[in-house]
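Annotated sample (chain length 406).
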Amino acid sequence: MTQTPARRIPIPPWLASTSIARLLDLLGDARFVGGAVRDTLLGRDVGDLDLATPLTPDAVMSRLEAGNIRMVPTGLSHGTVTAVLEDRSVEITTLRRDVETDGRHAVVAFTDDWDEDAARRDFTMNALYLDRAGDLWDPLGTGIDDAQAGRVRFVGDAAARIEEDALRILRFYRFQAHYGAVPIERETRLACCRRAGALGRLSGERIRAELFKLLEAENPLPSLTALVEDAIWRKIGLPEPVALNRLVRLLRHDPGRDALRRFASLLKDGVTETVMRLRLSNEEAERLHALVSWTIPEWNVGAVAHRRAIYEYGRRYYRDLALLAVARGRDPAPLADHLSGAASWPIPTFPIRGRDLITLGLTPGPVVSDTLRLVETWWAEGDFSADRDACLAQARRILANRDPTG
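Output written by the structure step:
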C-alpha cells in the first residue's frame, strides 16, 4: 500500500471551500481523484469533483445523513453516492477493484486499498489522488510525470485495460486530443486497433459523448487523424471518406469549439445513418442535416441575397454555413465581413400575420398560409423594405389573381 504522498501542492480554491471542508470532516479518510486532481496539477479549470474513500456506500450515506447533506444514490452497485452541497455536487465512490468485466460493464468488489483502486483506472494521469492538506498521491509512480509531460498512457497493459471496457479506446484518443503533447506510443495504437471491433457493441450515446468531447479540444486534428488512420472511425460505424482537409480549413478560421459544426465539416454524406448510429437528439439531428445540406449564396452575389439567407436561416445557422463554406474551399477573405454583417444586421419582422388576411375575407386554412408565404417571399426579395400597408396590398393582388377553383 502506498504510504507517502508524492508531493505537496498549494491548496486550490475549490478544495478550500467551506462546503468541501464540511464534507471531508464527515467522511474522514477521503481523497479527490481523477479529473479535478489532474487539471489542478496542470493549472486547468476544474469541472466535476470525484472523491474516493475506503468507506462503504452504506457508511457514506449514514455520515451524509448525520451531517444533513442531501444525497443521491447514483450508482450503489459500483459504490457511488452523490453528495449535493450548497454550491456543487460531489460524487463519492468507495475504493474498488474489478472482479469481472465484459468489455462494457464491470462487476466490482469494494476494498480499502488505494493501490488496488488506482490499478483499475484507465490512464496514469487519472490515477492521482489529492487530500485536504494538498498532498498529492501517485500510487502508480508515473501519473504526475505523465500528466506534466502530456503523455497519455494506459494503466499497466493497454490491451488489458481495453478488454475491461472498449470505450477506453475512444477515451484514449479524446485524452490525446486534450492532453497529449507527445506522439502516441506504437504499442498503444496497436492495442487500440486490434480491439476496435468491440466498439460496435457500444451504444451510440457513449460513442457520441466521447467523439464530441474529442472535437471540443483546442486542436483535435492530430488525434482525430490518428483515429481515422487506425480505422476506429470505421469501426464505430461512421461514414467514409472523412473530410479531414475541411476540418483543417475550418480550424484556421473558426475560433469556437463547436463540436457539431466541426463534425459536420467532416461529413460528405451518410447523415441519416450517422444520426441513427450516434443516437443524436432531435435538435442535433436537425442541425446536422442543415449544416451538411444547406448552403448560403456566393460571396459576390450582393448584400440582399445574404440578408435573405440570414433572415431565412437565422444568425446561428448563417454563421455555421459561412464557416463551413470556407471549410469546403470558398475564399476565406470576405468571411469576416460577412460574419460581422450578419451579427449586426437587425433582422426585420414580417409585418403581417394570418389574422390580417382573415380580415380581408379569407377563411382560415391552407389559402391563408400559402398567401402569407407568397407575400413574405415578395417582401424578402424587395430587401424587406415594404411596410405593413404595402404587404397587405400585395396580398390583395395575389388573392385577386388566385384561381378560385384552386
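Annotation: The two ends are 85 Å apart (CA to CA).
Annotation: Residues 1-149 form a domain with the Beta Polymerase; domain 2 fold (CATH 3.30.460.10).
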